[in-house]
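Renewal narrative, Specific Aim 1. Our central claim is that a sequence can be written position by position from structural information alone. The example that follows is taken directly from our test logs and has not been curated for this report. It begins with the structure tokens describing the chain, in the order in which they were read.
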């Protein structure tokens, strides 16, 4: 019923009822449309409407009407055509068998409404309206127009079991519920297209296409074992289950571990059946009793089928579980002790037992173990000086430590230092795990049989959050597996205490659960502005060392309380630089040492140390070197002040010689001329060099700053980029030994050792 046909007598109830009916009908129609679109039992065509303007209806009378819109327009201007056009429709519906009706691209929703069921209109317009409606249906439905559909759009007949409804039928039915009839085809076509899109979206929700999974691999860690093989598991996973079979190839590759010696090389294919999301690749690790560092290899994925690769490779870690036999070792550390530093990267290799006898100490802190080019721990960061190396210098280091321990002394191994790269920094940059780092530290503990470790964190390392966090986590794991291990942190300090970076280092360790034996402050390198040595505010270096310890104690008392722990003076260590520092105004004297020792006794600090034993000897006044204090005090003057502090152990100095002068085998070279190698431009010197007694002193020159070649009868040392050289006239490399070489840089010593080893002169 049109609004214009409503009688005033119907009132609000009629209007409300009609509105409710139409609203309910609209909901029903939409639900029907969605059901038809989503139901596999209803055939819904989504080809273009054949009644569109682009495909006009076939003519059916003396006049051709292009569109139903034009037919409606001509009602008011060509009444003479009404009869003709009305003849196209009849008040009696045509009958047609439902099952045998041919299917076309657009099936009819219904026959034209019979004349006697239509709403009554005035006699003057009834036939014209009927004509227009018929024209509309003839345009929208080829069957109603009794015109065969073009072959190009005809669809194959659908199975009789499937009801055949088109989007046009559904839209037309929906609109008719609102009294909208005779709508031109273009809007109908638009609504039809929208319905088809809705259907597709519903189908996408009801029947989504599964995304292709991605495949990843993770590695693992395993103890090497002493014999046979142990599987090291690599886990390969899919991001989600697949409905089809997924495959991916894999292969192993050496890292620091070697296939055939440390593990069995492997390659193959991993297959995931539908629904499976995890598989394991087992690689066999070969057990032995050789003491060696923790080693790694990788497994890499390739050629995926039915998946993409998210993580292509993973690292497997073979943890060393072999322990070097260290004779003796009965030292007792106690709650307080003097443990001076010794630079084990020096050459000749320091003879620890002889140093202990000369300087009266039973504990020594050995520096520094760092990451070498292979990513392993080594003395001075040199691959030739890894603990298991057969290099002459490495062997001498191990012998020196073993002999000192056998005599009743003990050592603390120190990691890091001012130069080089700490193993924590190296592992953090490589994305290695905390367990990997803990394993590396454990290997050192096992190799040298030690219970005390020191971590010298300074320079760039103290402000590197990634390596600090990794180190904290690793040390917590190390102590969990080795509860007896004591850990000291050695950090830069000012008279006002630790820097913000230094406090962060300690806070990180405490947060990770590390049990620190103490924090050792490096009482040196303050700078004149922070610790003036002249003017009205000047103090001695001994006074600044004491002030630094007091400030740090105050800071850490507060920090430990935040973690619910107590901090005591026994958790403080102090390490001054003996004599003249590289900051020339900072001179730590024997009197300063005595003041610091008195302070330590009064407060009961945990550790006194010094850098380093090899500098506790007189030297050129005012000059800072690796082997002298730059003062005139006799050898051992500083040690004699400190070596009575805390626990001391009686050593058996007849236990052995422990290493030897010249690095474990070289004959000492003395009594001759020492030539200093410098960067003087254009200085091409020819030396009358006697290998039996002369020496070459490279001071701090580094390995990459000079080259060594041999002519037919002479050794030539060339300074890189400086147009200068030194020729040892009539001397070959085979005549030289390490006793001829003096250097402060460990890399320079290692370079010479490699050169001379190649000639079998050592």
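The sequence written for that structure reads:
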């Amino acid at each position: 019923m049109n609004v214009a046909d409503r009688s005033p007598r119907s009132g609000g109830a009629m209007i409300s009822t009609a509105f409710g009916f139409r609203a309910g009908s609209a909901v029903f129609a939409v639900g029907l449309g969605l059901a038809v679109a989503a139901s596999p039992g209803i055939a819904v065509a989504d080809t273009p409407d054949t009644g569109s303007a682009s495909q006009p209806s076939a003519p059916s009378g003396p006049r051709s009407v292009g569109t139903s819109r034009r037919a409606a327009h001509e009602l008011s201007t060509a009444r003479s055509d009404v009869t003709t056009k009305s003849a196209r429709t009849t008040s009696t519906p045509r009958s047609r068998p439902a099952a045998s009706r041919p299917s076309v691209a657009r099936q009819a929703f219904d026959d034209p409404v019979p004349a006697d069921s239509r709403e009554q209109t005035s006699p003057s317009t009834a036939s014209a309206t009927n004509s227009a409606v018929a024209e509309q249906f003839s345009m929208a439905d080829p069957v109603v127009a009794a015109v065969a559909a073009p072959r190009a759009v005809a669809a194959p007949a659908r199975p009789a079991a499937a009801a055949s409804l088109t989007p046009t039928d559904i839209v037309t039915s929906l609109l008719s519920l609102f009294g909208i009839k005779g709508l031109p085809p273009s809007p109908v076509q638009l609504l039809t297209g929208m319905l088809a899109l809705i259907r597709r979206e519903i189908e996408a929700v009801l029947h989504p296409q599964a995304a292709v999974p991605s495949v990843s691999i993770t590695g693992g860690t395993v103890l090497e074992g002493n014999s046979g093989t142990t599987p090291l598991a690599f886990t390969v996973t899919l991001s989600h289950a697949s409905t089809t079979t997924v495959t991916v190839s894999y292969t192993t590759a050496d890292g620091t571990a070697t296939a055939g010696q440390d593990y069995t090389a492997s390659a193959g294919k991993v297959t995931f059946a539908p629904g499976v999301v995890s598989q394991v690749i087992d690689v066999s690790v070969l057990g032995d009793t050789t003491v060696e560092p923790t080693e790694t290899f990788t497994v890499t994925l390739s050629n995926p089928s039915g998946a993409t690769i998210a993580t292509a490779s993973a690292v497997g870690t073979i943890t060393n579980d072999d322990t070097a036999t260290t004779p003796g070792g009965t030292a007792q550390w106690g709650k307080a002790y003097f443990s001076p530093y010794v630079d084990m990267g020096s050459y000749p290799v320091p003879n620890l037992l002889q140093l202990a006898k000369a300087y009266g100490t039973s504990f020594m802190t050995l520096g520094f173990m760092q990451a070498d080019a292979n990513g392993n721990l080594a003395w001075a960061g040199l691959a030739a000086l890894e603990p298991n190396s057969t290099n002459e210098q490495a062997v001498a280091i191990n012998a020196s430590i073993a002999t000192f321990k056998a005599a009743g002394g003990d050592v603390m191994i120190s990691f890091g230092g001012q130069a080089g790269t700490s193993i924590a920094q190296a592992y953090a940059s490589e994305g290695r795990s905390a367990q990997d780092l803990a394993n590396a530290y454990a290997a050192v503990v096992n190799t040298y049989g030690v219970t005390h470790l020191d971590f010298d964190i300074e320079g760039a390392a103290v402000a590197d959050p990634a390596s600090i966090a990794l180190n904290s986590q690793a040390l917590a794991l190390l102590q969990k597996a080795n509860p007896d291990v004591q850990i000291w942190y050695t950090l830069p300090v000012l008279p006002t205490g630790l820097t913000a970076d230094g406090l962060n280092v300690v806070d990180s360790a405490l947060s990770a659960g590390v049990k620190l034996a103490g924090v050792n402050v490096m009482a040196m390198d303050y700078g004149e502005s922070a610790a003036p040595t002249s003017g009205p505010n000047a103090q001695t270096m001994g006074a600044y060392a004491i002030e630094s310890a007091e400030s740090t104690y105050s800071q850490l008392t507060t920090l430990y309380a935040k973690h619910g722990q107590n901090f005591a003076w026994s958790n403080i260590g102090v390490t001054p630089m003996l004599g003249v520092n590289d900051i020339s105004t900072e001179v730590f004297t024997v009197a300063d040492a005595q003041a610091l020792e008195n302070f330590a006794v009064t407060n009961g600090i945990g550790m006194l140390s010094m850098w380093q034993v090899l500098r506790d000897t007189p030297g050129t006044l005012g000059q800072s070197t690796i082997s002298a204090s730059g003062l005139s005090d006799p050898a051992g003057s500083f040690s004699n002040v400190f070596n009575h502090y805390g626990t001391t152990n009686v050593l058996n100095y007849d236990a052995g010689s422990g290493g030897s002068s010249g690095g474990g085998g070289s004959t000492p070279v003395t009594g001759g001329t020492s030539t200093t190698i410098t960067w003087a431009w254009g200085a091409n010197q020819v030396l009358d060099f006697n290998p039996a007694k002369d020496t070459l002193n490279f001071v701090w020159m580094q390995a990459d700053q000079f080259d060594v070649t041999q002519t037919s009868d002479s050794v030539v040392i060339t300074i890189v980029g400086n147009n200068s050289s030194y020729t040892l006239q009539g001397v070959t490399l085979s005549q030289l030994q390490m006793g001829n070489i003096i250097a402060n840089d460990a890399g320079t010593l290692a370079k010479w050792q490699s050169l001379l080893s190649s000639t079998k002169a050592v």
